[in-house]
Amino acid sequence: MFVPIDETRPAFKSYTLILPAISVGNVGQLAADLIISTLQLQKIGYFHTDGLIPMVGNNPYATSAENANDLSTNAEVYCSKDLKLTVLQIRAPILQTKIKQFRKSIVSWIKSSGFSKTVLLSSSHAYQRDDQQLEGTPLRYLLSPALQQEAGPRIKELEWREMEKVCAFPGISDSEQRLFIPGGGITKGLYTDCCNEDIPMAVVLMFCSEGDNIPDAFALGNYLNDWLHLLSKPAQGSPQWNIPPSWKLLFGGGIPPAIF
Known about the structure:
- There is one protein chain.
- By secondary structure, the protein is of the alpha/beta class.
- It has helices at residues 27-39, 99-113, 145-158, 187-196, 214-228; strands spanning 2-4, 16-20, 42-47, 56-58, 71-73, 75-80, 85-90, 117-125, 139-143, 166-169, 173-178, 201-208.
- Strands 1-3-6-7-2-8-12-9 form an 8-stranded mixed sheet, sandwiched between helices. A two-stranded antiparallel sheet has the order 4-5.
- The protein is globular.
- The mean pLDDT is 90.
């Protein structure tokens, strides 16, 4: 359930919603960080749910000492009225026993808010790719039927590759194909829910491995920007993303010199 910071409930009708899946390498969350930090989106509320592990911390997008101690929670909502853009940043894992309930609450919020489209940022294990997925770009997409007519022509112009279906029973029968996103968390389930509920949804994902996934986040952000044009792109090179201060602690605070 969305809870606004102030009493004025924002109208999301015709806005685009971006949210990450809790997936391999946390690539979706890192890409969402880049979007929020670069576009300087305003925090307008949080998503209240018992489906996420409780978490609280300092402001990950602090710009000064004055706002560095602002608290952040496990699921917060950021917005830009000018861009008609909303980002739900999720910072904690989903409880295994609450996955279906969490997906249901997300779908309910999307429907009640009237978002024009929803974009799920995700990732999948690179080592579990099918043979046909080994060639070319590691980036893939999926579109729900409700978004095909609007976004399909533009996606075709960009020459994006749709996430391939793989054999349900490899080595036994090739007749049955299925969507397989290992390491993608709720990606497949939420995408299927949105297809069934006639919700315009796009999944933008990347094959990757655990490790330093900052380059993957930039790649996913650039990929998304080619479609949505969130940032102006220079004649040569990639968009200029602003790295949030919290990324300095992605790999911990370093080894204290005092121990030596």
